[in-house]
Design a protein that fits this description.
The structure holds two protein chains of two kinds. Chain A is α/β, with parallel strands linked by helices. Chain A is built from 13 helices and twelve strands. Chain A has one domain: Rossmann fold (3-Layer(aba) Sandwich), CATH 3.40.50.300. In chain A, helix 4 runs parallel beside helix 6. The longest helix of chain A has 18 residues. Chain B is an alpha/beta fold. Chain B has a domain of 79 residues. In chain B, the strands form two sheets. An eight-stranded mixed beta sheet of chain B has the order 6-7-8-3-9-10-12-11, sandwiched between helices. In chain B, strand 4 and strand 5 form a beta hairpin. Chain B is globular and about 65 Å long. Classes of the chains: A alpha/beta, B alpha/beta. At the A-B interface, helix 6, helix 7, helix 8, helix 9 and helix 10 of A face helix 8, helix 9, helix 10 and helix 11 of B.
């Protein structure tokens, strides 16, 4: 792991709301009110150059929304994102955004949906090079695509095939080659291995580590799989209902999780060791993630939290430092939590 | 083991295509005892779901059973007419699928669907069936069953819907449940609840489960025995402890090593190079031979059947005690 450098990406108080209001007619005739989902309700974190920062959480917690805001697929409702000190919001036009867009690329979850089935692989990988005008002529383009195919352990001959001729793992390699084409510094990886089988997942994770080392890449890695995150990330942010509840270095988060939700997540992973232990029963935690349209007041986790008290039900906890961990929990702050 | 509840022998499932017949499940044999949980693992396309579908008689044409036999409770079921199989399915063999939304009809309340299933298979009146439906909802951990019974599927969350599906599968007290990826669509914390529920119900009712999944963690926590499939074939079968901790087939060994684990961080995960062959490109001999680190000549020519290995059965020539492999391999 290289020593992390200066801050590359800074996200502060990022909010993204989605309008889920009933139709105008229903609002006028039946007096229904406007409604919105707070997919992101004020989250802040920073990523240093060369590190892998992971966001983990269950479906609907907003982790993919963060990714989409960072690559510019969503416009934030409020808050700031800055890359090397340059504020996203100040870049109003497509032209102004373009240089930044080149430096930030994304890898999507589904390698079947993210590649155009009618394009040959060569054209798919060449697209960012052409769009950003990065190669002078056709020969250079061809050479660069060949080089990219080799970097992701495919052969130049594969460039003339169509996506359907490849397996899921190979398609994900093509997505990675496309993302690397413009020589980005920052890759947003949204569940890059979730659609893959485990033996292939290991290939892709190893490839991503190699590429990070070779090109000094910085990753924002989004996953719901804690074991994958444990293996690949340097620091982790745990999300719950559009908020960050805990941010810590990987080793520390797994050895000494602070937030009750983080503890729940770690306790509920099915473990291979269970087979050897023979009937060690885990105690499943009751309850489910609440509806984000109408999240509970106070700490959003309080209905499922064994340590919740009156304060948790009314006052929303903010991220606070607890040793080197940042954690948003009244119980941790008050020392009510068992170590 | 006592008389098995389900016995599958030399099952073969084929798909006719324009370019010839493809074999999706190739000569697999296994059995499940009463009350036993058999985990079936493999990568997508390995044939694990098709095996489950063949057992419950829900193979979608043009897929068809082309050979072998399936016996359930001492009776052959693979050649039954549709109507006869329909009476067994639901009553004696229940099914749970990955996506609860495809198993539930959005236009009927949960209660209507439960009552219909109960009355189809059990001789109960409308009132008694409704009472049984409420009991079932309580058993699968849905609070307020009296009220929830009149709700539609969309009024339930993902985890709760999967509980409803489990209630449906249990409605007629089946002796076997075929569960195909029952927790894959769910979040981890909900997944744990569903696994615990399945184990509890299995124990209380003595129901056997065939649990099809790609998640070894789920298998490790739930199954008594594990069957590992690769390219349509059964490559290893044995007690969960052996298959997870001391697997014998090189594919299972590679698969277990490539699973990322918490607690032992490594710079590089162990990986199996290449990928599983498509049905059109299955090599002769052992289907794993092009990726196998221990491959030798015989693997490319002859196809291995399940052979006795210490603690499990593996379809690998390394365990042929009469063959050429003997002198090289030390007894384990």
């Amino acid at each position: 792991m290289s020593e992390p450098g200066e801050t590359l990406l800074e996200v502060s108080d990022l909010k993204r709301y989605f309008d889920v209001s009933p139709s105008l007619l229903e609002r006028v005739l039946q007096g229904k009110e406007r409604a919105s989902v707070k997919a992101l309700d004020g989250i802040s974190f920073s990523i240093r150059r060369g590190e892998t920062f992971a966001l983990v959480g269950e479906s609907g917690c907003g982790k993919s929304t963060v990714a989409r805001c960072i690559v510019g697929l969503y416009r934030p409702s409020a808050g700031h994102i800055s890359f090397e000190g340059a504020e996203f919001a100040s870049l109003k036009t497509r032209q102004a955004m373009a240089p930044l867009r080149r430096r930030i690329q994304m890898i999507f979850q589904d390698p079947y949906a993210s590649l155009d089935p009618r394009w040959r692989v060569r054209r798919i990988i060449a697209e960012p090079l052409v769009t950003h005008g990065l190669v002078p002529d056709k020969t250079a383009l061809r050479d660069r695509v060949d080089e990219l195919l080799q970097q992701v352990r495919l052969s130049p001959a594969d460039g003339d095939k169509y996506p359907h001729e490849f397996s899921g793992g190979q398609r994900q390699r093509i997505s990675i080659a496309r993302a690397l084409a413009a020589r980005p510094e920052f890759l947003v990886c949204d569940e890059p291995t979730s659609a893959l089988d485990v033996s292939v997942q290991a290939q892709i994770l190893n490839l991503m580590k190699d590429l990070q080392r070779d090109f000094g890449l910085t990753y924002l890695f989004i996953s719901h799989n804690l074991a994958v995150i444990y293996q690949i990330s340097d620091r982790i942010g745990v999300m719950y209902l559009g908020r960050l509840v805990e941010v810590a270095a990987t080793g520390r988060l797994f050895e000494r999780p602070r937030h009750p939700y983080t503890r729940l997540l770690l306790e509920t992973i099915p473990r291979l060791e269970a087979a050897a232990g023979g009937g060690t029963e885990r105690e499943p935690v009751a309850g489910e993630v609440p509806n984000p349209i109408d999240p509970p007041p106070g700490c959003a986790f309080h209905p499922r939290c064994p340590f919740a008290n009156d304060r948790c039900r009314v006052e929303r906890p903010e991220l606070r430092a607890d040793d080197t961990t940042l954690v948003a929990c009244h119980a941790v702050e008050e020392g009510r939590l068992p170590a | 083991m006592a008389e098995p509840l389900l016995r599958v022998e030399h099952l073969r499932v084929e798909v006719p295509t324009r370019r010839g017949t493809l074999v999706a499940v190739d000569d697999i044999s296994f059995s499940i005892g009463p009350g036993e949980v058999l985990g079936v693992v493999g990568e997508s396309g390995a044939g694990k779901s098709l095996t489950g579908a063949a057992i419950i008689g829900l193979l979608e044409p043009p897929l068809r059973i082309a050979g072998g036999r399936i016996d359930f409770a001492g009776r052959r079921i693979d050649n039954l007419p549709y109507e006869a199989m329909r009476r067994i399915r639901g009553k004696e063999i229940g099914a749970i699928f990955q996506d609860p939304l495809t198993s539930l009809n959005p236009l009927y309340t949960v209660g209507q669907q439960l009552i219909e299933t109960i009355r189809t298979h059990l001789d109960l009146g409308a009132t008694a069936a409704r009472e049984r439906a409420i009991v079932l909802l309580r058993e699968v951990g849905i609070a307020g069953g009296e009220r929830r019974i009149d709700h539609y599927p969309h009024q339930f969350s993902g985890g709760m819907r999967q509980r409803v599906v489990i209630a449906l599968a249990l409605a007629a007290n089946p002796r076997l449940i075929v569960a195909d990826e029952p927790t894959t669509a769910l979040d981890v914390s909900i997944q744990a609840q569903i696994i615990a529920l399945l184990k509890l119900l299995c124990r209380e009712h003595g129901t056997a489960i065939m649990l099809v999944t790609h998640d070894m963690g789920v298998i490790a926590e739930t199954a008594d025995r594990v069957a590992v499939m690769y390219a349509g074939r059964l490559v290893e079968i044995g007690p969960v402890r052996t298959v997870v901790a001391e697997p014998h087939h090189p594919y299972t060994v590679g698969l277990m090593r490539s699973i990322p684990r918490i607690g032992q961080r490594t710079d590089r995960l162990s990986q199996i190079n290449g990928s599983m062959p498509r049905l059109t490109e299955i090599p002769p001999g052992c289907p794993f031979n092009p990726r196998c680190p221990e491959v030798f000549d015989r693997c490319r020519r002859e196809r291995p059947d399940l052979l006795r290995a210490p603690g499990s059965d593996a379809a690998c020539w390394l365990y042929d005690t009469h063959g050429a492999a003997l002198e090289g391999a030390e007894p384990r």
